């Protein structure tokens, strides 16, 4: 069985973006004089909610407000999130967030081996464009034949929707691709879609239960594409063993 595509998560996997997201959320809250400031501890638990708009709404729901106050604030969420996305995009465009170790080398090796690249992320297209342009240059976006963002699916991670849509757009079955993730939500999403999954945790996700990962590593540094494919889709057994297994299978049919 060969591997036709690597499907990358973005935030926390391609690059350690969540501190930049957290800073952008807080800057947007300050510009709207809301008096909200998400500390790193707040943000680590808020990251259980995928999607920036859903995360802000979840935070509002936890404020114990009267229905009228809640209604007014929830109505403000799209504008708040758009402001946050503008702030985040500007920071990333200035080169504020580099790729994580080993990411570019693995992308280069996969491409050289004829393996396609795809993205399955909860974040927005604007954020992905900004990150890939800033880190991989003007052609960065073009290197990913399929890019699925959070707003393209009904259910965000840990639901499998983004991975299922990425596989459909790639035109391949789950066993022909490998997912690369950083979080429990991402791992569960990829597994629910039937994908073999590499997980590279980070400051925000290191305390989560990631034991279900098929391959758990600190990062992608030194992980060669061939070695990864061999782990995910072991080459067929030596000829003799294969023929023995085939005879045994044929024997079972007679
Ligand atoms: C991680 C997320 C996103 C980001 C913030 O996405 O859950 O919500 O935290 O980005 P990924 P937005 O699947 O790439 O790990 O504010 O654009 O949602
Ligand atoms: Mg992620």
Most strands sheet: 6 strands, parallel
Number of strands: 6
What's the helix-strand series? Answer: EHHHHHEHEHEHEEHH
Ligands in the model, by name, code or SMILES, are: xylulose-1,5-bisphosphate, magnesium ion
Q: Class by helix and strand content? A: alpha/beta
Q: In order across it, which strands form the biggest sheet?
A: 3-2-1-4-5-6
Looking at how many chains there are and whether they match, the oligomeric state comes to single chain
The level of helicity is 40-55%
Mean pLDDT: 94
Beta-strand percentage?
5-15%
List low-pLDDT spans. Answer: none
What's the end-to-end separation, in Å?
27 Å
In DSSP terms (H or I, runs of 4 or more residues), the helix count works out at 10
**What global shape is seen?**
elongated
Rg value: 21 Å
Features:
single chain, 254 residues, alpha/beta, binds xylulose-1,5-bisphosphate
Short description:
48% of the residues lie in helices and 9% in strands.
What does this molecule look like?
α6 (125-136) links the parallel β2 and β3 (146-148). α1 (18-31) packs across α4 (67-93), α3 runs antiparallel to α4 and α4 packs parallel to α6. The radius of gyration is 21 Å and the shape is elongated. The chain has a six-stranded parallel sheet with strand order 3-2-1-4-5-6, sandwiched between helices. The two termini are 27 Å apart. Helices cover 48% and strands 9% of the residues. The longest helix has 27 residues, at 67-93. The protein has 254 residues and is α/β, with parallel strands linked by helices. The site of xylulose-1,5-bisphosphate has 17 residues, from α1.
